[in-house]
Amino acid sequence: GKARKWADRLKTILSYRRLFAPPHLHLIKRVSNGSDPSDISLMAILAMVPRSETPDVFVKMDIEGSEYDVVPDIGANQARIAGLAIEFHDVDRDPARFNGAIARLREHFQIVHIHASDPGDYDDATGYAAFLEISFVNRSLFSGTTRPSTVDYPRAGLDVMTDLPASRRTLRFT
Question: Buried-most residue among 38, 105, 110, 171 (CB within 10 A)?
């Protein structure tokens, strides 16, 4: 009952704290190229991380629309970044901007997972959800050729969907 719920919540909090325990870094700032004191650029974050011979930085980004502004910095620092998980906002409102960002990222990164985030609007005319979370891996970490996925997304047990109707949750690629 109630005790179990609190125990589960405490377990989640402790797990989260362990994730960001040294040597990992968790910044509570807005990642952007702005000049506000609460802003920090991706370049400044990467300057805090010791350099490695191989890509060893994983970037998890949910910055409420500013992700598009950071994409050029990701490309410029691709040799340091092993992987990315980015939530893209307003995909349905500006598909050209979204597609441009994806094209730029795909120059150095391979898409390995995608799902429509919720709660989201869905544009029946374009077929775009409002929010998409996409995971990428640096292409330099792959050997051989990659194959397109033949499965439908979201993946049961992996992707959590709450507000989108079932008919709008499935992503298929051509």
Answer: 105
Contact call for residues 127 and 170 (beta carbons, < 8 A): no
C-alpha to C-alpha distance for 139 and 38, rounded to whole angstroms: 32
The residue among 13, 14, 45 whose CA lies nearest residue 29 is: 45
Cα 65 from Cα 30, distance rounded (Å):
11
Query: d(Cα 40, Cα 160) in Å, to the nearest integer?
Result: 30
CB 87 within 8 A of CB 130: no
Alpha-carbon distance values, 100 to 25, 81, 91, 95, 150 (Å): 30, 20, 11, 8, 24
pLDDT tens per residue across span 21-37: 776 767 777 777 777 77
The per-residue pLDDT for range 75-131, each reduced to its tens digit, is 998 999 999 999 888 888 888 999 999 999 999 999 988 877 664 566 666 677 778
